[in-house]
Design a protein that fits this description.
This protein is an alpha/beta fold. The chain has 14 helices and seven strands.
Length: 332
């Protein structure tokens, strides 16, 4: 069943968690979800209801970079339980890592642990990470999102084939369910030459949440059967892999993004964030100032403790040096 998204309750949860209200990052996440997610579907509504307010381990395929942050925001808010994703170390320097890092500097902001970084060149460190994940589940009462294949796919026809036995062991020892998740619609049929951050052609995706697999069930199975049950739980959600196709591209949006990149020299990710925000109607004063600054080439915002933070964010969004030199914060 498709889940009806009530952004007001999701915002209430995260505002309470982060000690924020009606701020730019909230608008960015909400606008990105509205742009790039077609629907969120719970294959088992009764099962989804049982995980409300409880930590679980979500195990998923991986199509785009954006799906991880949006899933954590939406489903974390819906279940009233923060979600921490396991990500490769490279994300420390990626735009996603910078977005999270800059968000944590917002005046009065109380961050939750949103990512655990794993260096794939040092597989032995995964045991240390498992201990961190155990602490997150049991002491911090935070859920985990783990992409089972470890990296993004390049074709929508790729099924998930990997499942780390230590993650299953972690779920059993922590006595938490494993919840299958599948992302669809974000990749083409023909394999791409490189992995992508956003759905192909700036289209959209469907997010499917499967039936929770309880630890008491897993305890009765051999490790091979445990892996099979979990991978089937992921791959059987939504449309079969062999029939999956991407959603239609948004050519008008793509044109705007390319135009802004060419005009300013800004990288794709920030052009996408800015134009997604600009096409979303229900935003707060910080977002309105950022959008107006894009059009006027000057950031006008009342001088307060947020102004310096917002000014730095605007420099990322607006692009090249010539544009940067014209950014001003209204001190009046």
């Amino acid at each position: 069943m498709e889940i009806d998204i009530d952004f007001s309750s999701i915002h209430t949860f995260w505002r309470s968690t982060h000690s924020t209200s009606n701020w730019l990052i909230e608008d960015i996440y909400t606008s990105l979800y509205s742009k790039f997610v077609h629907r969120l579907v719970a294959a088992d509504t009764d099962g989804f209801a049982t995980i409300q307010g409880k930590p679980v381990i979500y195990v998923a395929n991986h199509q785009t970079a954006i799906e991880s942050m949006l899933f954590c925001m939406i489903v974390g808010g819906l279940t009233q339980t923060p979600i921490c994703s396991l990500a490769k170390m490279e994300h420390q320097q990626s735009w996603l890592g910078q977005l999270i890092s800059h968000s944590s500097l917002y005046p009065g902001y109380h961050p939750h642990r949103s990512m655990i970084l794993f260096d794939r060149r040092k597989p032995r460190t995964f045991l240390k990470i498992l201990k961190q994940m155990s602490t997150i589940l049991q002491k911090e009462q935070t859920s985990l999102l783990i992409h089972v294949d470890g990296t993004r796919a390049i074709s929508c026809r790729e099924a998930s084939t990997q499942m780390n036995r230590n993650v299953i062991k972690l779920a059993i020892e922590a006595n938490v369910p494993i919840v299958p998740v599948r992302f669809t619609g974000g990749l083409p049929v023909e394999p791409l030459l490189e992995r992508i951050d956003f759905p192909v052609g700036y289209g959209c995706q469907d997010y499917y949440i499967g039936t929770p697999i309880l630890p008491e069930k897993l305890r009765l199975l051999s490790i091979e059967k445990q892996k099979k049950v979990i991978l089937q739980g992921i791959n059987q959600l939504g449309i079969p892999n062999e029939k999956e196709v991407p959603y239609a591209p948004d050519q008008d949006f793509a044109k705007k993004v390319r135009g802004w990149m060419n005009e300013t020299g800004v990288v794709e990710s920030y052009a996408v964030l800015l134009h997604t925000l600009a096409t979303y109607s229900d935003v707060g004063p910080e977002s309105k100032a950022l959008i107006a600054g894009m059009e006027q080439r000057k950031l006008n915002y009342p001088a307060n403790e947020v102004a310096q933070w917002l000014n730095q964010f605007a420099h990322w969004m607006y692009g090249n040096t010539n544009l940067d030199n014209n950014i001003q914060v209204n001190r009046g």
